[in-house]
Design goal:
Blueprint lengths: L5 H18 L6 H8 L3 H4 L8
Helix pairs in contact: 1-2
């Protein structure tokens, strides 16, 4: 298994934060987060265990 890239995770956190600010916690699905990050819904869980 490939190790998680901490720099990539930081980049994704910024994109997710922007998405949460725009849509709110309740209005932000993992699918929306993945789209904002330019990846599939399943791939985002490589960097984060849950939406929370």
């Amino acid at each position: 298994m490939r190790l998680k890239d901490p720099n990539k995770r930081e980049e994704l956190l910024v994109k997710c934060f922007d998405c949460f600010c725009e849509h709110g916690i309740e209005g932000t699905s993992t699918k929306l987060l993945a789209k904002a990050c330019g990846m599939s819904s399943g791939n985002i869980f490589h960097y984060f265990e849950t939406k929370d």
